[in-house]
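Slide 14.
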Amino acid sequence: MAEHQQPPQQQAHQPGAEHKMHPEPEYIRESYRGSDKLSDKVAVITGGDSGIGRAVALHFAREDADCVLVYLDETRDAEATQKLVEAEGRRCLLLQGDVGEAAFCREAIDQTLETFGRVNILVNNAAEQYDWDDVTQIPDDQLLRTFQTNIFSHFYMSKAALPHMREGDTIIATSSINAFKGNDTLIDYSATKGAIQGLVRSLAISLVDKGIRVNAVAPGPVWTPLIPASFDAEKVEGFGGQVPMDRAGQPSEIGPAYVYLASEESSYMTGQTLHLNGGVVLNT
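Slide 15: predicted structure.
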């Protein structure tokens, strides 16, 4: 088996289940040492149950932050992540619901404030994607659904959280390499990721006088539950082979970027995107 290959596998429903993956992703390295970069901050992470969201939560917890994990329906994964966060000595609140609905996003922030009294970091990470060979075959309801989850949720969560955020707080978006290079079978998904880039740049300018920074991370191929839930077994097996490093990244390799963007170490950075993509050079 080539380095970039995973065993062929497929899951029937999105967003996918981490505990059903073979092998399961690595979410944090044993060698990662926290240094209180996020001491006593409260982070809300959408799609926080698994994949990149789980990695972000664990890295934040190791940096001394409490976490709110917003997830759709993968309760087993969410509860496992909660236990991992708590094992780091931090509190963790689980909130189940659909971030494509504005009312739920408002409720999520209200429950965060009720539990923790504040929100310092908002990570807009939830996403879904579908593999289409022909744009004319994308159903209208699916097109709307992809935009609701992938970009409308960023507006809904940000609108709900911002009245309670203060100078030094941060918003971080999960974008994608596909926003910059396109993808011939992830057309609607790539369009939402391009929209995220425009939102990050515009919101960053809008909030600069308030001292609230807005940035993004644009991963390349990363081994998360979304992959076997999106592609057929053959595509999953070769996933990651399209980048110079010839492999998929692990969530453990992505999480530290969010720590940087959430901490004061990145205090001179807003409206920007970090590209963790296995060596792909982009004209950004």
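Speaker note: The chain has a mean pLDDT of 94.
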